[in-house]
Amino acid sequence: DTAVSQTPKYLVTQMGNDKSIKCEQNLGHDTMYWYKQDSKKFLKIMFSYNNKELIINETVPNRFSPKSPDKAHLNLHINSLELGDSAVYFCASSQEQGRNQPQHFGDGTRLSIL
Amino acid sequence: GNSVTQMEGPVTLSEEAFLTINCTYTATGYPSLFWYVQYPGEGLQLLLKATKADDKGSNKGFEATYRKETTSFHLEKGSVQVSDSAVYFCALSDEAGTALIFGKGTTLSVSS
User: Fold this and answer.
1) Which of A33, A40, A104 sits opposite B99 (nearest CB)?
2) Between chains, do A97 and B96 touch, taking CB under 8 Å as contact?
3) Which pLDDT tens digit goes with each residue over B36-71?
4) Would you call A5 an interface residue with chain B, using a CB distance cutoff of 8 Å?
5) Cis peptide before A102 (omega within 30 of 0)
6) What is the pLDDT of residues A45-99, one digit of tens each?
7) Cβ contact, residue pair B105, A100, below 8 Å
8) Which of B84, B49, B90, B63 is nearest to A41 (CA)?
9) B41 and A107 in contact by Cβ < 8 A?
10) What is the mean pLDDT of chain A?
11) Buried-most residue among A113, B12, B92, B93 (CB within 10 A)?
12) Cα–Cα distance between B37 and A22 in angstroms, integer?
C-alpha cells in the first residue's frame, strides 16, 4: 500500500498550459506539504497545509494554487506554465505539525515544459 | 534565517569504506535534525533523526549525533555497500515545525 501517492509521475506539456498534480495520503496524517526539487536536486518548501488550512506559502508565484478538499488530499494546480517550472514536485505528509514530526514523501512528479 | 549546509559531492567510495557526510546548520531556538535518502527515481525516505542536543539517531548502520556546540549533524557509516549509492539530504525543522529546510544534497556512489 502506497502511503503518499502522486499522479501523474511524469507530466510533459507546453508553455502557457494549465496542469494539475494530485496527491493523496492514506496514513491518517493531519499535515501535508508540497516541495519543489530543481535540476540540481535542491529541495524547497512551497506550501504547507494543516487540517486543510494553509499554514505556509513560501513566496511561490500565484500561478500555483494548492487545494485541499480533505485532510487526505492536497492537489497542486499550476496556471500559465513557464519554462522555469520544470522540476520534480514532491508531496509529503506528517502526523501533525511539529518540529519532531518526520515527513513521508511521495515518489514525485517530474514536470517538463516544452 | 534557518539554513543547512552540506559537503559538496559527489562522494565516491569503494565497498566497505568508511563514510562521513558533513552537515552544519544555522537556526534559532531548538530545531530537530534529519537525514533523508533519495534513491534514483524515488522520493525521499527518512533515514534517521535527532530532536535534541547530544541525541544520536541511527538506522541501517548509519549514525548521526546532534552537536549543538558545533551546530553539526554529520552522517557516518562504518562500512558502505553498493546499495547505499543514493543522494543524502540533511534537513532541519524549526520549532514551529511548518516545513523542512534542506541542504543541497550529497551524491554517494559506491563501487564494488
Assistant:
1) A33
2) yes
3) 999 988 889 999 999 999 999 999 999 999 999 999
4) no
5) no
6) 999 998 888 887 777 899 999 999 999 999 999 999 999 999 999 999 999 888 8
7) no
8) B90
9) yes
10) 93
11) B93
12) 23
